[in-house]
Specification:
Length: 504
Amino acid sequence: MSLAVVFSRASVGIDAPLITVEVHLANGLPCFNLVGLPEASVREAKDRVRSALINSGFEFPARRITVNLAPADLPKEGGRFDLAIAIGIIAASNQLAGASLNGIELVGELALSGEIRSIKGALPFTYACYKAGRIAILPLDNANEAALISGAKIVPASQLLDVFHHLGKQKSLALFTSDNIAKEAEYEVDLQDVVGQISAKRALEIAAAGGHNILFTGPPGTGKTMLASRLITILPPMTDEEALASAAIHSIVGKPVNPETWKQRAFRHPHHTSSAVALVGGGSVPRPGEISLAHHGVLFLDELPEFDRKVLDVLREPLESGFVSISRAARQAQFPAQFQLVAAMNPSPTGSLNDGRCTADQILRYLNRISGPFLDRIDLQVDVPKLNSNEFSEQVKERGQSSNEIRQRVIQARNVALARSNKPNTLLGSKEVQKHCTLSPEDQHFLQGAVEKLGLSLRTYHRVLKVSRTIADLAGEPNIKRQHLAEALNYRAFDRMLAQLAYN
């Protein structure tokens, strides 16, 4: 036959849409035409495929070759279609007899020698094949990553010739099975490493139990960064669904996915000079940013006021929605970004409020680098004070509970929330807050008075209720009580500091 149809998949965001590779051989002057909105890297496949076929011992047909990548309105990029194009040419030129290409999908970049090189986005490709009920033939280097999809039929290959023999039933390639088992997360750090700061540790436990965003405020050297870096040690373990979503994002950016550690939560720590594109993603071909790489993990922003205000404000929508949409002239991509934000900052440009080196106006200008709408999206504002010498020497002896002990309470409280609403407390909508965060008339009056005194917005009001709900879950209480509200309101250190400076 002079026409062959092979299936492959593109990479768009974390999706892998089906690409039908149609290869037609016609009489006429020898030429090689590639159509279907290919970008430069795809158009270069003509030379890679020609050399790979010849060096693998195949006859390259001296005919008019037309390769169509359908659908034609979807931009294609990368060398991922090389293998599918090569197999299509072999089948169309009758060098592959009796082979059925309907139940398989192929992906892989070809070297000039016929070697099959690894690609980005092997995980979304394999998952899409699994959903479609087809066998995935992909590079050997991507096999361990693809095997994370339980139940997927994976056939790895290292040479074009091996794929040819497999399809021609001359020498079958074996289905790949991985022996790697995900290990339980092990961390070199522990919350016991932090001396003192009992209130901050308690706030960190609440943040972990409810998935709340948290801001640490305090002078240099008080342990803010240490506290932030230890949040992942007390978070609940990832579910398979969460781990796959996180691994898929790392896969499309070309970061290796270790089958032994793929269920460990990510901890991303971008520098304060990072641009908006670096944080949320972008580029002519949309790529995920730090917030997506932190999906189901932790994003730590140290020295928060040093970030450009416009950069921080682009985080407002992802913090609410849990995803980011990147639109360009030719394409649009959507990436998940359900991360837990941890931020740290000094209370003044000089590091301390009471060092006498800054006026109240200078401090206010420094703090106002962070917009009100951004602050509204932070549930817990925690003061991390400097310990005096007597407190330090006493608290060195008593380090408190380990991360593992705290983690058990966090898991128990998180399970209570999941059983009640099937989501962490931080993700509760307004109607769910009304349903699950009910207060007595006296407590309602108490909360309204506190909100008016601190000048909190309606969004912050709801966040105080969510934090109270988490505190009640940690205490094993079915209803929110006065003490839970009081503790939640106590974690508004930044709001109190602003109110005090404005009053003075």
